[in-house]
Structure formats: structure tokens, C-alpha cells
Amino acid sequence: MPKVEHQGRARAVKTVRVTLAIALCIIYLIPVLWMLSTAFKPREAIVAVPPKITFNPTMEGFVSLFTKRSTLTRMQMEQYQQRTDLSWWDKVALERGLAIIGPSQYVDRVKNSLIIAGISTIAAVTLGLLSAYAFSRFRVRAQADWLFFILSTRMLPPVVVTIPIFLMYRQLGLFDTHIGLILLYTAFNLSLSVWLLKGFVDEIPREYEEAALVDGYSRWQAFRKIVLPQSVTGIAATAVFSLIFAWNEYAFALMLTSDRARTAPPSIPSVVGTAGREWAATAAGSLLFLIPVVIVAFAVRKYLLRGITFGAIRQ
Amino acid sequence: MSKRLFVLLTLLASLILGACGGEAPPAAPADQGGSSEGTSNQPAASSNVNDLTIIWAEWDPANYLQQLVNDYTAETGVQVTVVQEPWGSFGDRVFTEFAGKGTSYDLVVGDSQWLGQGATQGHYVELTDIFYTELNGEALAPATVTAYAEYPKGSGRMWAYPTEGDADGWAYRKDLFEDPQEQESFKARYGYDLAVPQTWAQLRDIAEFFTRPDQNLYGVSIYTQKDYDAITMGYQNVLFSWGADWGNPETYKVDGYINSPEAVDALEFYKELYKFTPPGSSNVFWQESIDHYTSGQVAMAMNFFAFFPGLANPASNPYAEQTGFFSNPAGPTGERHAALGGQGMSIVSYISPERQAAAKEFLKWFARDDVQKKWAELGGYTCNATVLNSEEFLNNTPFNRAFSESMQMVKDFWAVPVYGELLEVAQRELHKYVVADEGTAQETLDTIAREHTQIFERAGLLQE
Amino acid sequence: MIRTKVRDASDKQPAISRYRSRHVLSDAALKRLFLWPTLALLISINIFPLFYSLYLSFTTYSAIANQPPVWVGLQNYRDILNDSQLWIYFRNTGRFVLLTVSLQTIIGFGLALLLREKFRASGVITTLILIPMMLSPVVVGLFWKLIFDPSYGIFNYLLGYPAGRGPEWLASKELALWAVVIVDVWMWSPFVMLLCLAGLSAIPDYLYEAAEIDRASSLYQFWRITLPQVAPLLLIAVLFRTIEAFKTFDLVMGLTGGGPGDATELVAVNLYRLAFLGQWNTGKASALAYIVLVIIIAVSNIYIKYLNRIKEG
Predict the structure, then answer these.
(1) ipTM, 2 decimals?
(2) Interface of C with A in 131-150 (CB under 8 A)
């Protein structure tokens, strides 16, 4: 095969590949973009027939998300309009005949989410990596059973365990505490974390550690200097998956918290006013809530895509 | 699993079980010295309880309640917080709390259907002895007392204070109804004037008349959702108006009631209405009904009165200025009924006697005529008949008159402890027939009758 | 619990222990230190719920009824297995799991193949594709319901149907399950993609170069090199997706509520209905959950067997 032709074909294949990837990515993102536009839509544009692509953006959704409001009667409205000390968000609400009576709990709940999801992700990845290493490199008695036990903790439908866990948590004083949810999410993520990281650690050839051990490294040093850097793709992927789970978990958060440790997911989808579902507020809340995870994913994307570089030597 | 592992796990399990079973729940914070007599004459100020927590669903009326109770704080110094849980999980959350005999909440604004469980399973404090004395019960519309407070129905035992009255009613497009051209062609086709329907048959005609897919206009939006209780609520509006019922409320006999010819007729009617709904109406409850209406897709929409303020508000409904409201029309024999929504406020039985006393003080305050008047002004749907029938209330909004009318004719689904099982059967079978188009109305209702009978027998309510 | 063998290199090779004497922390101590926090946490969180609900599955019990459980032996299990309704739900679940997992595998793998060779925007595109997975399932259900609406939804609009005329995705018995599958696949294919990408990047180039010299067709290369090399991670991805698919309920509740009729009533949806939503039939719900658990264990074992066979090469 002449070299030039071959290169030409390769370039054509690449062009097709890139175009296809971009096209698929756009298709994939349409629903997300639709949510994004919904967040800025006035109510009547959200349920317009046929769907509206262009509209006058409004901040209604964001105002609804961050505040509690009450409906003004006509008389109250007139009084209210006379006031000069209204902020822009007061005015947005006023246009819908509403007065802002206080902040919503959204910010507090996002804070709780950050604490709970953040800590539990770090814990799940750390514990997962350690035990994945142990399972991969040491002889563990009843290893298969233990691994299956770890996996099986994810198998029982959560609907059924919520009640026992609720009863247990109430007894132990873990109900409506941050630590309670952190423990639970860590435990739930460990199954994925151990299995996934074991998959990655298995890929790292043990010859490297053996060589290091011969060179006088301690086992711990070998783990830190060789295994840790090599499993960074696995760590990144596991961290992202664990974070996503803990970030969006709904059922346990609902049942095991009341007010103090309540995370955001149970309340975002139900921003409901007397005018029915506040689509814009729901969209705004979901998208703002998306930002931290997207930031994390972007920050670690280099590692996510780096792959397992040592794979080259495996047989 | 290896033997050793199994032994280990079992050991651990029994350890944890032991720990959980053995420990007594931590006692409520000690209230030393405080007299905890149920109905002390002194208002709550003298007691050590200076905060109360109410749980309700996450929606505007709960915000109104929070506004209202700030007055109580000003009067007594007792801080009252309204905790709001999302609608979809409100019931699950509250009952999980009950399952753990939790003390997170002092009062719960609970659905009318919960009364049976709340009363017989001991979650609610009985209010019978103070209901007509200290709770101003005489002032309430009688239908609301039966609906939101009494269990078993007719027994005179009270478990809640009717708080947010609600029922199904209708919003309609006045601009369409009053259009001279529409009126003319309607009269030509049906032989009578186009107006607010007086009977369900007229409602059907109007729905058919306005169903014009080429204009993206349809006749009605009705409840069809399968999740929890929506399609049952929707069907009930028709069922009761046909003079039929779910069963005999005293004997719990079902067969011959829910599958009576009237009930079958009513179900066929409800399915016919489904033909006049916008496409994709397989999963409609109040949110979707509002969306159908505010998008201009329907001429009439079934909904709860609680959401009519939103439909009358031009800021949230572009058709607000052209929107009228009416209550359920009459059935073939002239009977009129409306399916019940709404909630009553109950005291949770797991809190300390002292907190119960403080909660009772709060209820007493809430039941006062002037407070109920303020409650209505803020946007709450009071059940206080004096307020309900006052000209001021009736003329306050375009829908209050229809609301007041509806509250006199409300009827409800079973409120027995096994209502959940009854509801699941009804939801499943009704949805199958109306939406998925399986079987006939008779078969559907026969199945419901058979399964409901079994449930009542199992529950020991129905004696053979 | 069904006995499974997860075989691994350590079964075949002796663990590296001969250097132990030189170091402070022995391998055995390190092993314990590495393993026990994880196992202790998992045991303490899971054992009570697991055993307690197993016990409840043999009783008549409602968590809210303030009455102790009444032992009924296998009654709950008998009731469930004799309930023709539940068999419909099991069939729905089987169809759903099969459809959604196979489509996720194909699409996820396909996306990974497209993105494996880096180009300028590949990092950004890969991250953007992960977004659906980052959304809460409840929110996804809610918005896709809006998107699927025949009148104001954008799905039919983009397919070119005039408002109100296109297929009623969620209201039609034939389409509703597909609609749920579409959303689930949209949401979770990125999961499979990401793991496949990691697996693909580990394939050494010389394998392809050797195949190139042998003039092996690209199809042959795919079957003989790409697939087997990616398989271990792909199988883990598929295993977890299968487990999750069996448990899907919030997405369905948001989209269809299980309807129309029984069309999308999955076992996990019905399980939720049984355990909560006013019914609070805790005993029977626990029994149903254990039946689901046994099925998941059985299916997982099949995967794990494959996984081991592949690892043994």
C-alpha cells in the first residue's frame, strides 16, 4: 500500500471520527441545554406549544430558587410598588405578584451536600484503594467471599434497607447528622470503589514493586511511590463516580435527615408554588447544583483520559 | 461463604441487633419542675416549651402558615417553625418518623386519608375532649370535621384540627365560553346554550366541542396519574356524583357498591373524558393540569382549589384574566359531590406530655375565629364556617364562592388504616382501564371489588 | 449467599513476602491495616439492615403499625410467587435490564472508540458527555417528561412532528418502556464509556502493529485485540450497570409512574409502592427485595465467572 494513500485515508478516518464525536456530543447535550434554557424562561415559555427556542430571558427561576415568597393581594401590591427600597430580586418577584419573605434553604443544603459528598468521596476512594491493593497483592483468606460480600452491599434495593437503617440511626444518634450520611455514602460507594480500583491495580505489573522492594523500598513506600501514581486514572474515575453518587443520592437523604443535615437533592425537584411546578427554579437549582461536579470532572479530566500507562508490559 | 466468615457475620449481627434493641431511646430533654398537666389554664408561656415544630408539604400554603405563626411567637414567645418536605415524599417522610416513634416534629399537617393510621396505630393524640370546647369545633363546616378530624367516621372521635380545606374544582376559559361564534355553533350542534356546565353530561359535550387537535386545543385536563392517588381522586368526582360509592362505610361491604351499574357508568364516562384530553395525558396530576391550562391547551381543567390562586394570577397564568372557576357539576340524578383534598393538623403522640400540652395551646390559638380569618387572608383555606360564609371571603377571589360551595359537598376515599393497599389496587386497575385501554369498566370494577373485599377481610373490618 | 470465586493473580503466585523481615511494618500487618477499615465499615453499616429485613421477610409486619412482627414463615414468598401481577413486573424488569444494559454497552463502547484517539477537543467532549450522569435521576425523570411531551416537548419537535401529532412516548403502552430505556441509556452510557476509555488506553500499540503486519482486517483486530483487552473493565462497568438497572425506580416514578397500565411497572417500582406510599407492607416488601437480591446475585455470578475466564485468558 503506498504510504501517501494510507496517510490520506487515515486523515479522512480521523475527520469522520472527530465530526461524529462532536455531533454526538451535541445531541447528547440537547436535553441539558434545554434545561439550561428552561432556567431562564418565563413560565409561559416553558410550556409553550410548539416549544419555544427563543424567548426573553428572566431571572424568575433563580429568584424562586433562593427565596421564599408569598402572594400579594392587589391592595398589598399597590403599597408594595410605592416602596423605593426594593432590590432587583424583589422587583422580579413583584412582577409575578409575589413578595419575598425570606431566603430559601437552598444554600444551606448545598453546603451540606458539599461537606457530605466531599468527605465521603475522599473516604471511599482512600479506603477503596487500600483494600483494592490488599486484595490484589496479598493473599487474603476467603478473598472471593469477601469481594462478593463487598459487591453484594450494593445489590439490595435501597427502598427496603431505608427503614432498618433509619431505626438503627435513630438508636445510634446518627439521624440527621452529617457523619451519618457520610458513613452511609462511604459504605455504599466502597463496593464500586474496591471493585473498580482492584481492576486498575491488577493492571499494574507487580514486577515494578518487586524491583522496588529489592532496591530497599518498604512495602508502604512501594505502594506510595509506584502503585499510587500508576492508579491515578482509576482513582480519578472512582472519585468522579463516587462523588456523583453521593452528590445526587436522594432516598437516604430524604429518610435519614430532617433539617440540619439535609442535602439538596430531595428538595430541588419539588420547587412547587401555587402556580404548579416551578420549572425554571427546578432547572436553575439542578444546573447550579451540577457546577461543582462538573468542575471536579474538568479538573481531573487529564487523569481520567491518561489511561493505564503501564499496561504496555502486561502479557 | 466460608463457615468462619458466616459465624463472624452472625455474631456481629446479633451484637448490633442487641445494641439496637436493648438501648432505650434517649429521653427527651428533661423538663424539670414544669407542670405537665394536659390542659393547664396558663398559656404556654409558663411551660418550659418555647419552640414547636410543624411539618407540612413544601408548597405556598406552608409559607402562609409560617407567616401566620409568627403572630403566635409575638403573642407568647414560643418559636414555631414550619418544616417543609417535598410533596412526593411528604407522606413517606412523616410515616418513617412515626415508625421510629420520632420526636422531630410536634405537629403534623396530614392528609385526610392518614387519619385511620394516625388514630388506630397511635401516632396522633386524640383531641375529642377539647374539640368542641377549646378548639372552637362548632365554628367549623360540618363536612370538614368529618373529613379532616373524625375517625372512625360517625364515631365522634377527633384526631386533628381541619387546617387547609381543599377539594376538586374546575378552571375554565371564559374567553372561549363567551365567544359569540363559539356559542352559536355550540347551540347549533348540541341544542342548548354554551355556559358553565350544570351536569357532567354538559361538561362532556363542552369538552368534545372544544377538542380541536388542529388548533392545539382540547376539551379537558383530568387526573390520570398512577403514582399515588391521582386517577382515583379524578374518578371519585364522577363516581360520587353518579350516586355510587366505594362501599358501605359502616359494614365495609364493597361488592355491589363499587361495581354497581352506576359506578360502571361513571367509569365509562370518565374514560370518555380521557378522549378529550391533550396528547400525552397519561400521567397527569395537579402540576400537569396547571401546565395544560396555562399553555392554553385546554378549555377546562380539573384541579384542587389550593392551586387556583396561581391560575387567577396573571403573572403565572397568561389566561388569568379570562379564567373562571366552577365547582363539580351534577350527576345524572342531580347529586353533586367533590373529591376531597386538604389536611388537618394533628399532634404527634411521641412527644413529651409537656410538649403535647404546648401543642394543644397552639391549636387552641390557631382555632380562634380571628386567627382563622387572618389565615384566610394570608391565602390559607380555612374550614371555619363563619369565615367561609362571610361576604368578605366569598368576594375576595373569583374562586372562593365555588370553594365554599364545594366544601359543603366533599366526599373522600377510605381513611381506614389499610387505605394504602386499597388505593394501590384502585390506582392500578383504573389506570389500566382508562389510560392503557385494557378490559371493560365492569371487569375493572369487579376486580377492584374483589381485591378490596379481600383487603377488608384480612384487616378484620369486614365480617363474612 | 451463593459461593463465588473471584480468581486473581494472587491465587496463582505466592505473595511477595520474602522481603518482609527488612521492614518495620510486616506485610501481614499492612494487609490488615489496609483491609479492616473497609470491612469493618461495610459490616457495621450493612449487617443489621440485611439480617433485620431478612427476618422481616418471614413476617407480617408494617413498620408504622406499632405492632410486633408476626412470624408467617414462607407465606410472603408464596404470595409473591403466586401473584400473576408480579410476574408481569418481573417480565418488564427483565426486558428493561436487557435493553438498557446492552444499549449502554454498545453506545458507551462506541463513544469510547470514537474518543480513544486524542484530538484537540477530545478532553472537553469527553467531560461534557459525562454531564447526564451527573444529574439527579429525579430531575432527569422530571425534565425528560417535559421533553417527551407531545405538545410542548422538544423530542418530537426535533424529530419533525408538528405539536401534538407525534408519538406519545410516555402514554403509549408500546413506547413507554422504550422511552424509559432511552433516558436511562442517555444517562448512563457515559459510565460505560469512561471505563472503556481507561481500558482502551491500556492496550499496547505493538499488538496492533503486529496485526497490521499480518494484514489482519480491522474487524479481526477489534475482536481479537480490542475487545478482549477492554473486557475486564467493561465487564465491571456492565456488572454495576446491571445491578443498578435492576434497582431503577426513581427515574420511572418521575417519567411514567409505572404506567400506562403496567407497561413500565418494574419490580423496584412496585417494591417502593409496597414498602411506602401508604401501604407500608414492610414484611412482604422485604420478601420481594430478597427475591430481587437472589436474582441479582445469580446474574452477577454469571458476569463474575466470565470476568475470571477473561482474566485467566
Answers:
(1) 0.88
(2) 131-139, 142-144, 146-147
